[in-house]
Amino acid sequence: MFNSPKDQLPHIVLVGPRNVGKSSLINALTAQKVSLVSETPGTTTDPVERRYELQPLGPVVWIDTAGIDDVGDVGLLRVERTKVALKQADVFLIVLDPDTSDTLHEGLLAELPSTTPRCVVLNKCDLLTTSERLTTLQKLKSRWGQGLIPVSTLNGEGVDTLKDALVATLSDSFFVPELLSDIVKENELVVLVIPIDKEAPVGRIIHPQAQALRALLDIGAQVMVVRETELADALKNRLATPPSLVITDSQAFAYVSKIVPKSVKLTSFSILFARQKGNLKAYANGAKRLEQLTPDKPILIAESCSHRPIGEDIGRIKIPRWLKEKTGHDFTFDIAVGKDWPRDIQKYQLIIQCGGCMSNRPFIQNRIKAAQDAGVPITNYGVTIAWLTGILDRALKPFSD
Question: Which structural domain range is residue 307 located in?
Answer without folding.
Answer: 285-392
